[in-house]
Amino acid sequence: MARGFTNAAANYLSYDSPIISALPMSFSAWIYPVNWTYSNQILSIADNATNTQFFALFGSSSTGYISAYQRGNLAAAAAATTVSATASSWHHCLAVFATNTSRSIYLNGGNKVTDTTNTGTTTGLDNTAISALLRNTPVYNEGDSYLAEIAAWNVALTDAEAAILATGMSPLAVRPQSLVAYWPLIRDTDDDIVGGYSMTPYNTPTVAAHPRVRYPTKVFYPSFTPTSGVTPVSINVSKSADYIQIVTP
Amino acid sequence: MASGDTLAIFTPYNNEPPSSNYATLDTRNQHPILDFDATTDEEAVFKGIMPQSYAGTTGVTVYIHYAMSTANGSVYVVWQAAFERVSDSVQDIDSDGFEAFNSTGQVAVPGTLGHVDVASIAFTDGSDMDSVVAGDGFRLKIRRDADGTSADDDATGDAELWAVEIRET
After folding, report:
1. Which among A214, A220, A222 is the nearest to B17, CB-wise?
2. Is B14 on the interface with A (CB under 8 A)?
3. pLDDT 10s digits, B18-57
4. Is residue A131 part of a domain?
5. Distance of CA A192 to CAs A15, A29, A151, A209, B29, Å?
6. Which of A108, A221, A223 to probe by mutation at the B interface, max B CB count within 10 Å?
7. B168: nearest CA in chain A?
8. Are the CB atoms for A133 and A43 separated by under 8 Å?
9. Hey, are the CB atoms on A209 and B35 less than 8 Å from each other?
10. Which residue of A173, A237, B4, B92 sits 20 to 30 Å from the alpha carbon of A78, by its own alpha carbon?
11. ipTM here
12. In this structure, is residue A245 part of a structural domain?
């Protein structure tokens, strides 16, 4: 079960610190746009004292184009797809903020667009939000969508990694050493299971069916009883010496 | 291996969902579960290697541990399962090769909401389980037969898969 957000309720999730405050960074998410009447905010890190300092992954109203939007002390700039995340189906989005002069957006593992405007430095970041951009004014928490499997890395992910994520692979399986935060958003659990940056819900987000995701897990195979005539081995486990000894007869 | 011994256990996070009509991940009191719809047939797919201890004589039985989201009382759910053998030069993984489904038939849902029931589906050794033998790779597809193809599933709300066990029959 994903998280559902509506424009009418103006609901969103937030954490009162920036989970990442310096470039590079990458934002990944699955979005099910209910409609594109309004823009759909996905994930953002912003300064709520100004209007001019933020990183945001969002979709534009009417067109449904997805953007990696960055604003610093020189300019605002967005890399926006030229294809839509159509309403009423799940889409994967990845925003890669590489430097002050390079940001890229991917939709469904491809459709890459890169923008190279120099935005200057982005400073003063003080919050992280899902389904909202919590800058000073106006705060953007509009849109009607379901969101799930949201993650952030402190590196610039590659084209190949964008493609892997779009197949439904969990963020846990993609550059895990650089994964800073991961909110699966299953039902109403808004916990970050990697960095501990658990979100606070505002205005009661709903729950919705989850997208297809594959998690890196192990299958459990039980041990078995030796057949008759086989002499069992002894297994000695030493806690103090950190060894396991298998003794055969 | 002896009859009744466990061969493999799968939990919701082991699911490798198909491209469409997949069971969706959910939680219930922090238990990970897979939701199977009440009207559309939805599926989950689990991958494994058949343990070397599998005797290959009496077949296997698939045990499906599930609860219902809303239904209780005198209604029934129907589960199906099918094997696909993925062995040495046997299966092109660019396509699916599942054997035909076997079905539980109608299974009475638990009378108390939140209780877990265990439904079982037996497979005879050989073609019934796509000829999977010890050491073979395989996939197991679990489906809720929500549209009642094999038997009438009249339970409303989701069926919530909690775990799957494969046991030697």
Report:
1. A214
2. yes
3. 999 999 999 899 899 999 999 999 999 999 999 999 999 9
4. yes
5. 10, 14, 9, 19, 18
6. A221
7. A224
8. no
9. yes
10. A173
11. 0.77
12. no
| Binary contact (A168, B46; C-beta < 8 A) | no
CATH architecture of B6-168: Sandwich (2.60)
SS3 (DSSP) at B128: helix
Residue A186 in contact with partner chain B when CB distance is under 8 A? yes
Mean pLDDT within B58-70: 97
CB distance from B57 to chain A under 8 Å?
Answer: no
- Say if A148 falls within a structural domain: yes
Domain with A78 in it: what CATH number?
Answer: 2.60.120.200
Query: Residue ranges of the domains in chain B?
Result: 6-168
In three-state form (DSSP H/G/I as H, E/B as E, the rest C), the secondary structure along chain A is CEEEECCCCCCEEEECCCCCCCCCEEEEEEEEECCCCCCEEEEEEECCCCCCCEEEEEECCCCCEEEEEEECCCCEEEEEEEEECCCCCCEEEEEEEEECCEEEEEECCEEEEEECCCCCCCCCCCEEEECCECCCCCCECCCCEEEEEEEEECCCCCHHHHHHHHCCECHHHCCHHHEEEEECCCCCCCCCCCCCCCCEEECCCEEECCCCCECCCCCECCCCCCCCCCCCCEEEEECCCCEEEEECC
The answer to the question of residue A121 being in a domain is yes
pTM: 0.83
On average, the pLDDT of chain B sits at: 95
Quote the domain boundaries for residue A66. 2-208
Nearest-CA distance B130 → chain A (Å): 21
**Which residues of B fall within a CB distance of 8 Å from A189?**
27, 30
Q: What pLDDT score does A225 carry?
A: 57
Assess B167–A contact: CB distance below 8 Å, yes or no. Answer: no
Tally of domains in chain A? 1
Are the beta carbons of A186 and B26 separated by less than 8 Å? yes
